[in-house]
Amino acid sequence: MVIIYTFKSSIKIDALACRKYISINLLLKYEGSINCIPAVTEKEIDMVLFLITSLLFSSTGPGGFELGVILGEPTGISAKLWFDRNTALDGALSWSLRDNDKLHIHADFLWHDYTLIKNSSGLLPVYYGIGGRIILADDAHLGVRVPIGISWLLGGAPLDLFIELAGILDIVPDLDFDLNGGIGIRFIF
């Protein structure tokens, strides 16, 4: 059976309706547009959320995903995602207390060396890396960060205590060198 229907404006139909129309050979003649909206079930949404959560909180590194605080310059929320035993991505959404509460965002790719310091009560890697930072304000700053620090991954407790110092070369609005430093604690998920 073939049905022809004329539309003068755009319509939206879900994926199930699209399949039904195709199965009965419905020919649509239109002067606008037709958008098929995919039908998403609650089960599919749950599966996607489960996969995202599994990827976010799983890793082959010593910490998986970490979330906590950093105190110093800047002060705020700190997160770290391990890619493997030696590499991770860390970042912070924080406030620069010495620069009139400006919003400070940074992210760094880190390498960890476990051989420099030996410790029997947990892992004590020295880390170093490279990343970027932006300070959002009327006179926004954009720069390159080179952090170096020490993490204390406590044996038996899901905590990462860390201290770091980062050299920063601002390239916007002008060329300038700065230092940031802080101590922090992150919970390991």
Task: Write the SSE topology.
Elements: E1 3-7, E2 11-14, H1 15-23, E3 26-30, E4 34-37, H2 42-56, E5 65-73, E6 75-82, E7 87-96, E8 102-113, E9 122-123, E10 126-136, E11 141-154, E12 159-172, E13 176-188
Parallel strand pairs: 1-3, 2-4
Antiparallel strand pairs: 5-6, 5-13, 6-7, 7-8, 8-10, 9-11, 10-11, 11-12, 12-13
- For the record, the count of structural domains works out to 2
Average per-residue pLDDT, rounded, comes to 79
Oligomeric form: single chain
Separation of termini?
58 Å
Question: Architecture of the largest domain, according to CATH?
Answer: Beta Barrel
Task: Describe this entry's structure for a reader.
The chain has helices spanning 15-23, 42-56, and strands at 3-7, 11-14, 26-30, 34-37, 65-73, 75-82, 87-96, 102-113, 122-123, 126-136, 141-154, 159-172, 176-188. The strands form three sheets. It has an eight-stranded antiparallel barrel with strand order 5-6-7-8-10-11-12-13. The N and C termini lie far apart (58 Å). The chain is built from two helices and 13 strands. The model is unreliable at 1-12, 18-31 and 55-60 (pLDDT under 50). With 189 residues, it is mainly β. The radius of gyration is 26 Å and the shape is globular.
Brief overview:
With 189 residues, this protein is mainly beta. It folds into two domains: 3-56, no CATH class; 65-188, Beta Barrel (Porin), CATH 2.40.160.20. The chain has helices at 15-23, 42-56, and strands at residues 3-7, 11-14, 26-30, 34-37, 65-73, 75-82, 87-96, 102-113, 122-123, 126-136, 141-154, 159-172, 176-188.
